[in-house]
Design a protein that fits this description.
By secondary structure, this protein is an alpha/beta fold. The protein is built from five helices and seven strands; from the N terminus they run αβαβββααββαβ. The chain has a three-stranded mixed sheet, covered by helices on one side. A two-stranded parallel sheet has the order 1-4. Helix 1 packs parallel to helix 2.
C-alpha cells in the first residue's frame, strides 16, 4: 500500500503547510520509484526462491501516486511492468556526480499478476484537494509559495518546506523548470492506465477478479472528490453484497480490498 510514486520537483507542493504538518516533506521523496522497484524485487524473490509455493497474485491498495500527475502515473506503471524508468521532471540536469535518484534505471517488474485499488492521492492534489487553487497547476515554473533554502541541505530539520508566517518575507519563491508531463490526471485516466489490473473496460472504479481457484477478489473505491477520508456509496455497497452472496454460494474465499480501513469510512 501507499507507494506514493512522487515527482518531488513539482511546484504543486503544499510547502506553505510544512511548518504545520511535518509530513508535507519526507527525506525519501526523490527515491519513490527506486523504493517501489526494490519492493517488487523482494516480492519476486518470495515468488521464485521461497521454499513455499509460488505467489498467485499481488494487490496494491491505493495511493499509488502522490499528486495525481501524469508523469507519476507513467513512472508507477513502468516500474510495475518492468523496463526503463526515467524518474525525472523539468530540466534533465545532473548536478551531482555519480548516481542520483533522477537517473534512469531498469525496473524488474512484478513477476505475478497484480491488482490495484484507488486511494485519495490518486484522485486529489496532495491527497485532499480537488482544486488547484492552493497548489496551483503542476506544469508551471514557480513554486506556489516560497521554499526555504534549508530544504536542499542534507541536515534537514523536521519542519521543512516554507518559512513560518513570521519569516514569510525573508525567502523568495523558487524557480522550477516547467514540464507539461506533470499535467494532472482524472480518475478515468488512472483507471485506463490500470486496465487489466482489476479495472475493466466498463470504466468503473471498483471491480471483482478471480485471481486463483476458489478466490474472489473484490476491489472497492473508497476515495472521494471531497477529502482524504473514505466513503462507500450505495452502488458499491449493493455490489459488495452481491459479490459476498455469490462467494458464499460458491464456497469461495472472498478477499475485500480498499485503500481506507473501515474505521476511516
Amino acid at each position: 500500500s501507499d507507494s506514493h510514486v512522487f515527482d518531488e520537483e513539482t511546484p504543486a507542493r503544499q510547502f506553505w503547510a510544512g511548518w504545520l504538518v511535518p509530513t508535507i516533506f519526507h527525506f525519501q521523496e526523490a527515491h519513490t520509484t527506486q523504493v517501489l522497484d526494490a519492493a517488487v524485487r523482494t516480492v519476486n524473490r518470495f515468488h521464485t526462491e521461497s521454499e513455499r509455493r509460488p505467489l498467485d497474485f499481488a494487490v496494491l491498495t491505493g495511493d499509488l501516486i502522490n499528486n495525481r500527475q501524469r508523469n507519476e502515473l507513467d513512472w508507477l506503471v513502468q516500474t510495475l511492468e518492468g523496463g526503463r524508468v526515467n524518474p525525472d521532471s523539468g530540466a534533465d540536469d545532473d548536478p551531482l556526480p555519480g548516481l542520483d535518484p533522477h537517473d534512469p534505471f531498469d525496473a524488474e517488474g512484478l513477476a505475478v499478476p497484480w491488482f490495484a485499488t484507488l486511494g485519495n492521492h490518486d484522485r486529489l492534489f496532495e491527497g485532499h484537494l480537488a482544486s488547484d487553487v492552493l497548489v496551483g497547476s503542476p506544469t508551471r515554473d514557480r513554486a506556489r509559495f516560497a521554499v526555504q533554502a534549508g530544504c536542499v541541505k542534507t541536515d534537514l530539520p523536521v519542519h521543512c518546506g516554507v518559512a513560518r508566517p513570521t519569516e514569510a518575507f525573508s525567502v523568495l519563491p523558487r524557480q522550477i523548470p516547467p514540464d507539461p508531463r506533470r499535467a494532472p490526471v482524472e480518475v478515468e485516466d488512472v483507471i485506463e492506465a490500470l486496465r487489466g489490473h482489476g479495472f475493466t473496460d466498463s470504466g468503473a472504479s471498483y471491480w471483482r477478479a478471480d485471481p486463483a481457484p476458489g478466490v474472489r477478489l473484490v476491489g472497492l473505491d473508497t476515495s472521494t472528490d471531497e477529502g482524504l477520508f473514505g466513503r462507500l456509496d450505495e452502488a458499491q455497497l449493493a455490489f459488495l453484497d452481491r459479490e459476498l452472496a455469490a462467494a458464499d454460494s460458491a464456497g469461495d474465499i472472498a478477499i475485500i480490498t480498499s485503500h481506507h480501513p473501515s474505521g476511516d469510512l
